[in-house]
Amino acid sequence: MQKRFLAICLFGAALAVAAAPVRAEDDSVQFFTNIEVTPDTPVNDAVCFFCSVHANGEVKGDIVVFFGNVRLDGQAHQDVVNFFGNVTAADNSSIGGDLVSFFGSIRLGENVRVNQDMVAMFGTVHSPASVSIGQDHVVFSPWIFFGPLLIIFFVVFVIVHEVRARRERRFAQAYPLPPRQ
Predict the structure, then answer these.
(1) CB atoms within 10 A of CB 159
(2) Host domain of residue 76
(3) What is the pLDDT of residues 60-109, one digit of tens each?
(4) How far is 45 from 61, CA to CA, in rounded Å?
(5) pTM for this structure?
(6) In what order do the strands lie in the sheet with 132-133?
(7) What is the DSSP code (8-state) at residue 105?
(8) 44 lies in the same domain as 65
(9) Residues 51, 29: contact at Cβ < 8 Å?
């Protein structure tokens, strides 16, 4: 048993030593701290958890934000993806890949260019007619998600209300009030 455990440990150590180091040049990954991209400091990829990305310059790769906002006033050469936040693209901005937003709104300024697809899942899109989208434009209304939830909430509310009213009626029948004198 000890020899097998020793062999597993040695094999794991050999894999750890042989693992190729990962290098991310010019990438910006932040937790709880906003990412500011200026024309003087372009980044390759910008990934942000519980914070926002403000790109006033050039992002050569992707912009991915979880629980924050994206404000683009420049160029994003690849995809812009946002979960539970808003995406705002200023006038004359461009996105080289896809623009995807889950549970948030998309606001596009004049002459904004999205080279691939634009997808808004359970959110809203506000864009003027001058916006150019290269391929598909898909918008799923938030009511598709929240409508059934409201119906379920209403059914549960009615059931709870009726159960409580029935208990009160039983209690009132079991313990009637004495007659008035």
Answers:
(1) 10
(2) 24-140
(3) 889 999 999 999 998 888 999 999 999 999 998 889 889 999 999 999 98
(4) 5
(5) 0.68
(6) 58-59, 75-76, 94-95, 113-114, 132-133
(7) -
(8) yes
(9) no
